[in-house]
């Protein structure tokens, strides 16, 4: 019982050490669990939401639409739980200029169900539900009416030339028709599209500009009022996928098994079958056209024949009359009248030759008959020519049918192809990677500080330990006094850390996340396993340090422990051998230098602890500086143009005329911009891969006219880059990179994410979904967005643009223009404000789809989530620095109580004692800061390399001010600690402190 009381008394006496260990454990566990818990809560709530709304696991698209046979084939695939046929249509409407939307049918099989936020779901024809983004942009509300018009040049697969029949119509066969939606609409609800959780009222990440397939909004309509049997896509749910977290690898593996099956025989067979359906439909139309033409020709021939028969009858009557009259005249010249009467009563018999001669004579003698015969002959001739022409046309169509209908392509996509899903996953993964890295530094510092504190604690009780061991107490029992002390401190600190880690930090992160994404049903959850392991990790580390300190003391005999520890033998330090310097140092300065360098363990612990904390602060500030400069570097340095204008293909000419007529442009470059996909090539033609796979990046494909390749360098800074270490990259000379016809230039952001370098082969997908394997000629410095630059000739070579194959040798740009240049890069006159205002005014023009001012983007680019996490990390690192310095200062004082008492006896005033002790701590702190500044840059580079986010490359930047802030903050913490240490020095009693231990 006395042993326990003494142990408790010892614990109470060492309350400062207890608080230090508890605080370090609290901070470490909070960092370890907090960022993880925030990301996990977001992951889980989003996964529950996706399951509740039935977000598709797989989506199948086809260049020729999907028929009932395609849907039936997908239902038979092993592992498919549900299949939902999707019908959609692109429409346009007027909303401060021409805007586009996708009319999406609300599925009846429970897949991709919109989440109702306000109002009710549409049930009748003409009712729609819209997103909050549309409500915000349009100013409309529930009950408002809207009139839309079908897109004139729809980009839906059902309306492309791939499905055109022999007569040029858009029907793929006799029964399949493109979807058609009502045009007079009433808003009855506001919904959240499960495919896009972006918060329209919060921060919006940069997105690439798309081609003519882009729509601004999505409207959800019921099946009532929707006509057409052809499906634009099919969405699938996979068996067992809902039981897995959509963000885990197990989910991806489950879905991949099904996509591999679809990509196998099903995809190949249905592509062939669908094309055969189109061929059969074309042949049926040709056959129907031939039958209809034959019927019309037969009717016309019958009419001509009837007219000719009537004409012949009239001529024959005249011939008979003339023959009868001739016979009567001959009889009148005969013997008697009876003979004449008999001759007149009978028609003379004429041979065919005579009759035909008389017909021709009669027709020639009568202008009316001549004209009638000519009309009959002309009608017959025209009919024969029409027959021949129609037959030739039909035969030509039969011959051209196979070449006019291209091969049908299926694209099998998983959730990774959804921009909202992949953006959320990448954001959370990147933040979680920071949460996995920083606790390592906290753990190392915790172990170092625990070793320092517990070693001093054990050393202070040296004689007491010897007494207990001499009285027969086991060494384990004696060591348990310190092990339980450290364990209790870790458990209390860890428990408080779990509260902060699973409640405080996640709540802070989720507030920031909800400003970026809409996540219904978000709640904080506790992970017993991860929380327990988090505490256990620090318990093991601190206990290991405590065990080491105990073993170092208790391996001695009780007699040795009962005697005071012999003072460290005197020795010279290196500075003493440098006489010119050493001789100029004062007495107290020499004592300070000796104390610093003679006690190696204290030197290492103090400098290492301060360096680690400083490094964490620098690392956080480095990430902040890197993110803060992204917009300026991209939109001021890399993009040399001031304005990007994008239009629909049909409005490209009007857009260029509009911009030119305004007179603001000093120089410009016409280009074609499409949204596409870049993936690591698996060989072949790149058509066998799966769109949206984990090894792909969404890109902005920029095609440049052949005659203006050299002008690209005036609009975009072209600098080749090569991968470096620790977040750095080798950047080549400006202007040393040229676009040619031998490959594409890939942005550094996309190349870094995919591991692509110059000479690599990649799978490139253009805006029409056509894929090809391309060679990477160079990697260009690029931080925001994933631009891929390609020449007109190489674009034609990749995507088989027939009209563009000979553009390189053509004489006229108008004659050679194979691609529609739907975008313009332009340099403008005027200030940044005027350029921004001009871009906004252009967006109101009906011919402009999007106008972006680089000046506006440079000023407005922000990354709120990363900034919030950096602020959190810097705050925790500052707290750790304060605890570390407090622990080291108190340990330093406790080790040197007799020395401080001696100084007081010798006549040192309190302020002089303060200066004597604090000077050593400040020197050690400065040494730690000097070591921590480059270490922070090193760690910052490593962490930014781990931040693989879509369309972003973190070019590590640490501003001089950040180094100053980190150094000043650490020194400020050291000065603050002095305020706590000085009263301890004042309370040292020289008499009791100098008493002999024996």
UniProtKB/TrEMBL annotation:
InterPro entries from the UniProt entry: ABC3_permease_C, Membrane_comp_ABC_pdt
Keyword vocabulary terms for this entry: Cell membrane, Coiled coil, Membrane, Transmembrane, Transmembrane helix
Name of the protein in its database record: ABC transporter
Ranges that cross the membrane: 437-455, 482-508, 528-551, 603-623, 865-888, 921-943, 963-985
Pfam family, one: FtsX
Main localization of the protein described in the UniProt heading: membrane
Region (Disordered): 145-181, 678-697
UniProt keyword GTP-binding present: no
Domain named ABC3 transporter permease C-terminal: residues: 437-548, 872-977
Superkingdom assignment: Bacteria
Cell location: Cell membrane
Coiled-coil residues: 369-400
Low complexity compositional bias, start-end: 152-170
Cross-referenced PANTHER family: INNER MEMBRANE PROTEIN (PTHR30287:SF1), MEMBRANE COMPONENT OF PREDICTED ABC SUPERFAMILY METABOLITE UPTAKE TRANSPORTER (PTHR30287)
Key word Cell membrane present: yes
One Gene Ontology cellular component annotation held by this UniProt entry: plasma membrane
Membrane-related topology note: Multi-pass membrane protein
